[in-house]
Amino acid sequence: MMSTVDLVVPVKQLGAAKSRLRGAADQGIGDADAHARLALALAHDTVAAVRASTRVRRLLVISSDPVVAAELGAVGVEVVPDGPVPGLNAAYAGGAALLREHDPAAAVGALQADLPALRTAELDDAIAAAAQLFAGRAGRVFCSDAEGTGTTFLLAAPGVALDPLFGVGSALRHRDSGAQPLHGDWPGLRRDVDTADDLREAMDLGLGEHTSSVLAPSPHH
Fold first, then answer.
1. Cα–Cα dist 34/49, whole Å
2. What angle do CA 153, 8, 44 make, to 5 degrees?
3. Is residue 208 annotated as involved in ligand binding?
4. For the whole model, what pTM was predicted?
5. Is 188 part of any known ligand binding site?
6. pLDDT: is 18 or 136 the higher one?
């Protein structure tokens, strides 16, 4: 039975990432540097939760942003640039192909990079739930977001293509493509952050240290 998985986490260029969150890091001012720090912090906290997992064997971050590559590389994360085809799904598919080149028998997963309240225990539990479904002959499984419409986590069994279908309404697309939903109370895994309201909900769950630090009021105020 599958015991560990290899995960792909794409991180967009920081300036282009999370446009609906602009201003959230600086009381609505919308400074580009403050916004980039927040986007990076979301990724840092997501990655930190993944790296603490005993069920994730290998983590591959896909990003062509030099700051992301330098910052995550400095803490030992493997970062490779985006491939020739733009977009989130291409990044997931390309990353999964790289992981399978290394180990064709790997279970591979796609995780969103904006899960600042993610707890390692939630991720471990979701992977354990996936392993049970794979043992029952499921090929792909997914975790929907808090609203139930999007997807935060997609996992493919050994020998099965990842076939990522992320984007608006992706939960239904993943289900229609044959992926089975994961059922579990994992609020941090389900709370991706696209808007200020999402960020407030993540705060209520408890943010990771990087995002907390970026959002802390500066001593000058």
1. 23
2. 85
3. no
4. 0.95
5. no
6. 136
